Amino acid sequence: MPPFNLTSMTPATFILAGIPGMEKSHIWISIPFCSMYLAGLLGNGVMLFVIRTERSLHQPMYLFLSMLAIVDLMLSTTTVPKMLALFWFSAGEISFGACLTQMFFLHFSFSAESVILLAMAFDRFVAICYPLRYAAVLTQSAVVKTGLVALLRSFCIIFPCIFLLKRLPFCGHNVIPHTYCEHMGIARLACADISINILYGLAVPFAAVVVDVVLITVSYILILLALFRLPSRTARHKAFNTCGSHVCVILLFYIPAFFTVLTHRFGQEIPHHVHIILANLYVLFPPLLNPVVYGVRTQQIKKKVVKVFICPKSHLLQG
Asked: What's the confidence (pLDDT) of residue 258?
């Protein structure tokens, strides 16, 4: 009897179904999604350009912010172009390899962003609690190493998912009721026991993110205790403002993520198309809103944007 060949049970392509039950509304749904994606590209692009061109912004806080912008662009670009092709041209077909690649970069981006948010919390902790040691602790080398740690940890956590999926046999089921490929969406199509996928896909990445959240929370508890010990009310207000943007970004990232996970796990009564829409908004909102939050709340960035984009035009008009 010939050995069982798993490769023959692997589909050549998957079919992304979009938002089940709302196929007739795909065109209309694509309009706000496309607008948010383009606005996110513009906002993060401007942020990266300003930080890159202004030497005064080559500080740890803004270098971490540039990393956040790059990861946000990866998060949305991994999913949205294919999603729009599906909505506009019914191009839901995606090869098995491309689906695994999309899945990898989607989860990789999420994990990397979590690490970067933790690094930004540590940056604020050192700046407020140990201001005299800030330059010695957060050197340019330390920032680069932090970025490498974010990449390495995310790779080590997400890469095994590819092998967990490639080992599964698929018996003709190739329609994914979603707008993009994600780990459990692919695993549920397999005609085999996926308990390992469920355990790994939920426990390992979720545990890593929970550790990040706990460490961020501890950082901000220590920051608040340090703020209350400051003698000057003006100093407290100024220090708190330096953390305000980061707190907003943390809430924008983690609250939708945990809400999506919890509704997917426990919200069986919630219609499936609501789950899909929430999942789509999750890859659109952080890239869209993070540049807005930092651009509005951070005076240094606002001034540099005006200097780079507004002042040259005024000089040209005067000339």
From this structure: 78
